[in-house]
Specification:
Layout (H helix, E strand, L loop, with lengths): L44 E4 L6 E3 L9 E3 L2 E2 L23 H5 E4 L3 H9 L9 E3 L10 H4 L1 H12 L3 E5 L8 H9 L3 E6 L5 H7 L6 H13 L4 E8 L8 H11 L4 E5 L5 H13 L4 H10 L12 H4 L2 H17 L30
Parallel strand pairs: 1-5, 3-6, 6-7, 7-8, 8-9, 9-10
Antiparallel strand pairs: 2-3, 4-5
Length: 358
């Protein structure tokens, strides 16, 4: 018999082989009780990412930015629903436990960013951080890559937006407050549920939901435009909390609210269903049926625009509920637009940019 790989502080209960690998393996009981013992804590392995560039560009018509930065690949927060999990397969790793325990870092991220912003043909537009993996995941306390990136962006007066689940963003309030005063930054805190017990298994190493609301309040206290992203909204499991989350965000001072319906691309569908059957066996079938109801009968529909909000009667009902509560609380507007006219190219290789004298 095979046994779920239940490690304390980890969400995945398997380490399925990456879809590009030719060989696979799994733990099996040899009849001597070899799998009876409780699994030890799974230690995080840090791997240096030798990428030669930092800014990723996209032309997707359903997202409001064309460039992003991810200083980390993989995420220790371990959210079981994370749509970025399949990207670990490109590295030869699993979208399961590998994604949340084998983290690639870019130690020279700030230097790469400085070089790219200093290129003659670079044109300024808001940079998005936290759109794939969280830039404030636990490893950031030690490696401070996000802090270094912010220092470069503040120096060059470059606009950015941040999405995070972490209270660690409060460490950088000094930089963010100054940038906010220039109209250069906006922040969204992602909140999936207000249920601490559910959050502990769903997103085991992220900040508690109430702590994220406190972070919203701290950001607003110092004048940083902040909103809340109800993401993902999980059918049956968390959808009933939609109004409560938006209301709690409003009380914390959030200016705006958005939501994204649960997305289960590639390996994430099996990993999420496996997690459901382990932790919520009586609800698993109901959850997955509602997911398919909103994805044209499939676990996932990658069609632009529909991939974020779904389609069908269930998805429309969620959309109507969200419109009503966000309008009622005055949170149906986007955060203020970011300025791009203040940008100045950085000093690169000891040579001062001529833009400095503009």
């Amino acid at each position: 018999m095979s046994k779920p790989l239940i490690h304390k502080g980890r969400a995945s209960i398997s380490n399925v082989t990456g879809r590009f690998e030719k060989q696979s393996g799994q733990a099996e009981d040899d009849g001597w009780g070899s799998l009876d013992a409780e699994l030890p804590p799974l230690q995080t392995e840090v791997i240096v990412d030798s990428s030669k560039s930092l800014i990723n560009y996209n032309d997707s018509p359903d997202i409001p930015f064309d460039r992003s930065i991810n200083p980390y690949r993989g995420c220790e927060h371990g959210c079981i629903y994370c749509f970025a999990r399949p990207t670990h397969a490109y590295l030869g790793y699993s979208a399961g436990l590998d994604f949340e325990s084998r983290i690639l870092i870019k130690p020279d991220a700030a230097c790469l960013l400085r070089e790219e912003l200093g290129k003659r043909n670079y044109r300024c537009a808001p940079l998005a951080l936290g759109t794939n993996t969280d830039p404030y995941q636990p490893l950031e306390r030690q490696h401070r890559l996000m802090r270094q990136i912010l220092e470069v962006l503040a120096e060059t007066r470059h606009p950015l937006s941040i999405v995070t689940k972490s209270a660690l963003i409060e460490r950088d309030l000094d930089i963010l407050k100054e940038m906010a005063g220039q109209g250069l930054v906006s922040v969204y805190l992602s909140i999936t549920t207000l249920n601490r017990t559910l959050a502990r298994t769903l997103e085991p190493r992220a900040a508690a939901p109430q702590r994220r609301l406190e972070t919203v309040a701290r950001l607003r206290e110092v004048g940083i435009p902040a909103g809340v992203m109800v993401a993902p909204l999980i059918p049956v499991l968390t959808d009933y909390e939609l109004e409560a989350i938006v209301t709690a965000a409003h009380k914390a001072g959030a200016l705006s609210a958005e939501y994204i319906l649960l997305r289960l691309p590639l390996e994430v569908a099996d990993l999420f269903e496996e997690w459901l059957r382990q932790h919520y066996p009586l609800k698993a079938e109901h959850v997955m049926n509602r997911v398919r109801d909103s994805r044209d009968g499939k676990a996932y529909d990658p069609t632009f625009h529909q991939r974020l909000r779904g389609s069908g009667a269930y998805a429309e009902l969620i959309a109507q509920r969200f419109r009503l509560i966000s309008k009622k609380l005055g949170m149906d507007k986007s955060l203020p637009p970011l300025r791009t006219d203040l940008f100045r190219k950085p000093t690169v290789g000891g040579q001062m940019s001529f833009d400095f004298f503009d």
